[in-house]
Amino acid sequence: MLVAHTNEGERVNLAENQDLLTLKRLRKQTKFFCPECSEEVIMKVGTKRIPHYSHNKGSSCTESYERESEYHSTSKLILLNWLKEKGLNPVLEPYYPDIAQRPDIGVRYKGIDYAIEFQCSIISEELFAKRSRSYFQSGIIPIWILAGKNISRIGNNKISLSGFHYLFLRKTDSDNWVIPSFCPITKSFINIHHIVPITVKNAFSTYQIKPLNKADLSTLFCPKFHGQISKYEWYKELRKTKDFLPQTRGAFKNKFLRELYTHSLSPIYLPPEVGLPVFQAPLIETSPIQWQSYLFMDVLKEENPFSLEKVISCFHKRVYKNDIKIRRLPLVCGTDASFAVKEYLNLLVNLKVLAKEGGLYKRSSPYSIHESQSWLLRKEEAFYHEKGMLIMEGIKQPGIN
Ligand SMILES: [Zn+2]
Questions:
Q1: Side by side, which strands form the sheet with 52-55?
Q2: What is the pLDDT of residues 270-300, one digit of tens each?
């Protein structure tokens, strides 16, 4: 940490001005205390690392066991100076006593208070959610920035995202998904956007990389994005996932696969309308192929016509049974995983797989299980060839409410 208090309550910020000699002299004259736990802390001044404060060994302060790396302090200072250059008045490590929290940077932008947390080390979902909730309750909007080194890119337009990564996911003013990231080495913002999950871990995504000297404040606070996934890439990836599912380790014990088989289905033979991308899909942790398969088995294949309520109720039953997992997104408010289900049904209507009549959904053509694999693959190819544009439109449109 870079800010501590003296006995008189004066804030001593190590990021400001002081040269090493002045700091060393100050260290001899004054005692410093942690703003969070009030324990005495030690000022570390050396040549290797940025000057900082450190708790004594064995301290129980949360600050002390999240020992800050050089990578972290550097990032924090670069961002602080950049915000100053842009004409804002950021405060380094401001302490909010009512919630006992201290973000890396506090800053007001367009009348809104923001807490900027640059997170390098992995912290628990509970702690992440608790801190975020406290900020929201105090009228502060948290922006958690993922350390650039923690991004696992897969090629140009895919990414591997763990549960920890998804905690950073937020929605921009223009209703886009984004995971904000920053790299202190290249001094660039990396906004990961257009995130469309394929499996629990892998997702399509687009990267907006902006060096600080080319970025403006909106890059951080309200970024706008352009970008789209190609229908062929989605189709290719989806096919690969469907083909690969029965070969995954422990497949014979997999509850989902066993259930498909009892319905005379196999991932390979799933109809093309199972596994479509929808905008709100990040709200659901289970892969689109899997949650859409459950809806297919429970309602779409079985009943004709059926109501929206029926589909939503089946979805909730599957969630209750833990067959479908909802993703916990501490930064996303006022939305519900059932929105993804509604979007999916709307998409099926747009694709003319379903027709909507008198408030009920009806299959346009009956589903036949007696389709050969080659016939099915041809059908799937034609489906994407004809309707690919419409399918990908689904992820461009912000969700329905
Ligand atoms: Zn402390």
A1: 11-13, 3-5, 32-33, 40-44, 52-55
A2: 999 999 999 999 999 999 999 999 999 999 9
